[in-house]
Amino acid sequence: MSEAVGPTQAALADDRLLAGRILEGEDGAFEVLVKRCHKQVARISGRFFRRPEIVEELTQEIFVKAFIGMKSYRAEMPLEHWISRIAVNVCYDQLRRKRQRPETVISQMVEEPGEFYDRLQMEDAGNYWEREDVRLYAEQLLAKLSPEERIVLTLMVLEDLPVADVAKLTGWSVANVKIRAFRARARLRKLVPE
C-alpha cells in the first residue's frame, strides 16, 4: 500500500499565506513568487520556443497573468502547479497565434528530410538528441503539428511528465490526453520518412 505523494498541508498553508500577501499588495510578496518559480516558468516556455527573447517575453506574460489572476488561485494546489498551468496555457495561446500567422523560425534544411533521416541512421547514435541538426529537425517536425499535439508531446516526451500531470496542466481529461498523445505520435510517424 503506497501513500499518494502530494503537497503537504504546511506547504499549501505557506502558499495560501503568500497568495494572501500578494493580494493585500504587500511589498516584495510577488517578487518572492517570481524568484521561486522563474526557472520553472522559463523552462516550460523554453520547451515550446527556442528563441531567448520569445521565452523571456512569454515568461513575463505568464507572471503578469499570474499577478492579475491571483484572486483565482485556490490553495488546493501548490502555487508552482498553478503557475505551470498558466505557463502551458500562455504557450498554447502563443502557438495558436503563430499557427494563424506562420513564420519560418528554423532555416530551411539543405537536405530533403528523407536524405537527412538516412544519414542519421548511418551515424553513431551517441548524444543523438544533443546534436544541433537533430534538434533543429525535431523542432521542424514539431512545428508541423497542431498546437494541441505539440503541447502534449512536449509535456510527455521532453518534460517527461506522466499523463495525470499533463491532464492537470492542460485542463484536459486523462483520456483526452492519452488520445491526443496517440494521435500526435501517429501524425509524427507519418511526417518522418521511412
Based on the model shown, name its key terms.
mainly alpha; Rna Polymerase Sigma Factor, Chain: A; 194 residues
Architecture overview:
The protein has 194 residues and is mostly helical. The chain has a domain at 7-103: Orthogonal Bundle (Rna Polymerase Sigma Factor, Chain: A). Helices cover 69% and strands 0% of the residues. The chain is built from nine helices and no strands. It has helices spanning 9-23, 29-48, 52-68, 79-100, 113-122, 132-143, 147-158, 163-170, 174-191. The model is unreliable at 1-5, 101-112 and 124-129 (pLDDT under 50).
Distance between the termini: 45 Å
Continuous helix count: 9
Low-pLDDT segments = 1-5, 101-112, 124-129
Rg to the nearest angstrom?
19 Å
**Which of globular, elongated, flat, extended, rod-shaped describes the shape?**
globular
Q: Please describe the biggest sheet, giving its number of strands, its sense, and whether it closes into a barrel.
A: none
Sheet-strand content, in percent, reads under 5%
CATH class of the domain at 7-103: Mainly Alpha
SSE string, helices as H and strands as E: HHHHHHHHH
Mean pLDDT across the residues is 78
Q: Briefly note the structural class of the backbone.
A: mainly alpha
SSE topology:
Layout (H helix, E strand, L loop, with lengths): L8 H15 L5 H20 L3 H17 L10 H22 L12 H10 L9 H12 L3 H12 L4 H8 L3 H18 L3
